[in-house]
Amino acid sequence: MSESLSLKAFVVLMKSSKSVQEQIKKDISNYDMKTSDFTILEAIYHKGRQTVRQISEAVLINTGSITYVIDKLETKGLLERSACKEDRRVVYIQITESGKQLMDEIFPKHQKVIEEIFEDISAEEKKTVIDILKRVGKKVEK
Which Pfam families has this protein been placed in (predicted)? Predict the structure, then answer.
């Protein structure tokens, strides 16, 4: 049986993804956070005030789990909720000044870890990887 390049690409993608995720998880743990805490905080840090649904779509965590994480981050004073004046069913989540200060301190360090992971890959290669992975994702979403 000949080697299937699709199968090989899949295996390499999965192994690479696992390795990168483990490295990122290790980095985030240095800040006394879980990955879900950091991802939600990071999404609001960069995108500003969001609804729970918007956060859920951005970070790929289901809304039930997100509510629990938001509760924890709110208790720590890093996030706060505010009601939507037009629709009482909608609740906005925004970063507090304390949360912003924390992310101002740790996000550059986190970004440096990501930059180091990709440091041996040229800008052109990164663009190619992004394009290919987007195409794979769109194919699966059909």
Answer: MarR (PF01047)
